[in-house]
Structures are given as C-alpha cells and as structure tokens.
Write a structure and sequence with these properties.
Strand content: 35-45%
Number of domains: 1
Largest sheet: 7 strands, antiparallel
Strand order of the largest sheet: 3-4-5-6-7-8-9
Number of helices: 5
Pfam families: TANGO2
Protein name: NRDE family protein
Structural class: alpha+beta
Order of helices and strands: EEEEEEHHEEEEHHHEEE
CATH topology: Penicillin V Acylase, Chain A
CATH superfamily: Penicillin V Acylase, Chain A
Radius of gyration: 17 Å
InterPro entries: TANGO2 (IPR008551)
Shape: globular
Oligomer: single chain
Helix content: 10-25%
Length: about 260
C-alpha cells in the first residue's frame, strides 16, 4: 500500500473515511478483498506470497493499513513480511496503543513501514524510522512512503481534493473517492522528493495512480464508517493499469463495539 488518504472524526455523517491505493509489482500473486476462510471476521485482500495484507477491517471494527517507507537504510536480508503486522493487529484484541508498543520492540525485524491501527475509539500511527507512536488527531490526513502528512505532491494534492469534496457533501459516494485515487498526473520535477531512486522513477511514483511496465497501482480501497456504525468496504482491482473488478461489502458493527 503506497497511498492512504483519510478523514477522521471530521464529517457530520462519518466517523472514518478512507481512500487508499496499493502499488505493487504486477506479477506478485494477490487475492481480491474477501472474508478470509481462516479468519472469517477479517475482510481484506491477501498477498499470496507472504499471506499478509496491506489494509483490512474486522466485523468488530478493528482497522489497519500499512505503507512501506522508501528508505534504503531500513532494508536488509531476512526481514519479516510487513503485511503480517496488519494481519496480526486485526487478529488480536490488544488495544491499538499496546499493539504498537509490541511492534516498536520488534521494529528492526522489518524493513521500513508505516502502520495505522485503530478501532471505534481512535486511530494511531507508527513507523519504524521515527520510532514514535502518535494518536492521530481529528481531521484530514494522508500517508505515502515517508511519514504521516509528509508534503509530497500526491499527498498534498489528494488530501486537499478529498477534504474539498467532503466539505461539499453530506453523503459520500465511493465512485467520487475512486476518482480521486485514479489521478495519473505526475508532479513537476521541482516538487519531487529525492529518495534515491532516480528522477525518472520519482516522476512515475509521484502520481496517485501509478503505471509503469512492471509495477503500478494494483488495487484501490474505500472504507466508510458512518455515525450509525454502518460500514462500506469497496475495492477496485486493476491489471496493467486497467480496471478488472470491483468488490463491495456492507455490514454494521455490533453494539458491543460502539
């Protein structure tokens, strides 16, 4: 997952609004969003190479999403799959803050990552570069391959577009959020970060929706939780940059989680 825009407790009708893209190599085997047979309470796509996931939610309202950090100093051999962090949080009943304390103690076992975890009581952010656990305040936020709200062009553009849209509507349409995520405009060179990957690739990765010959946006996900605790989870999947499928799920969180 490489781009997550979200609104937290800042809309009259929604507690949480998430619009996120997962960017990955086209040949990495992946299952579309579904309730996992081995964890039927868990709704997410699945990386079939390592059996983890990049974003998911449970029927009890636990939510997690992950992005990689583009920092070569955090890479290394024999690192654990970062997708297991999302899976682990969604499979436990540990509080978000306690879970992140555990992950912080294990941070060197993983290459660079950002993780958002939360439930109906709040949302927390951690990455193993800054090594800081933060409760996310209400409002609009965006996360790519640096830390939370780092002003990369697609972070600023997407967060602004989402915020502007939500200020103008009481009822959020998933199609409108997917439209924001599908923006292929690249940033001008003067605005690009320098993350050590070269100018040409920085250009390609500066778009919200990425297309390269062997790597790009594989899926887009929208999650809505309204004030009545109704959940909408929609996922679009792509092959070589072209839309191939859309999955839609709805459920209401149980009274015990509200």
């Amino acid at each position: 997952m490489c781009l997550i825009h979200f609104h937290l407790q800042d809309h009259p009708n929604y507690k949480l609004i998430v619009a996120a893209n997962r960017d990955e190599f086209y040949d990495r085997p992946t299952e579309k969003a579904h309730y996992w047979p081995d964890a039927p309470f868990l709704l997410a796509g699945r990386d079939m190479l390592q059996q983890g996931t990049w974003l998911g939610i449970t029927k009890e309202g636990r939510f997690a999403a992950l992005t990689n950090i583009r920092d070569f100093s955090l890479e290394g051999k024999d690192k654990k799959s970062r997708g297991h962090i999302v899976h682990e949080f969604l499979s436990t009943t540990t509080s978000p803050n306690q879970f992140l304390e555990k992950i912080r103690n294990e941070r060197d076992a993983y290459a660079g990552f950002n993780i958002l975890v939360g439930d109906t009581s709040g949302l927390f952010h951690y990455n193993n570069a800054d090594n800081t656990i933060t409760e996310v305040p209400a409002g609009p936020h965006s996360l790519s391959n640096a830390t939370l709200n780092t002003p990369w062009p697609k972070v600023v553009k997407g967060r602004t577009r989402l915020d502007d849209y939500l200020r103008q509507t009481d009822h959020v349409k998933t199609d409108d959020l997917f439209h924001i995520l599908e923006n292929e405009e690249e940033a001008p060179d003067s605005m690009l970060p320098n993350t050590g990957i070269g100018l040409e690739l920085e250009r390609k990765l500066s778009a919200s929706f990425i297309k390269t010959p062997n790597y790009g946006t594989r899926s887009a996900t929208v999650v809505l939780i309204n004030r009545e605790y109704d959940v909408v989870f929609s996922e679009r999947t792509y092959k070589d940059g072209e839309l191939t499928a859309e999955e839609n799920f709805t459920f209401t969180l149980p009274i015990s989680t509200k």
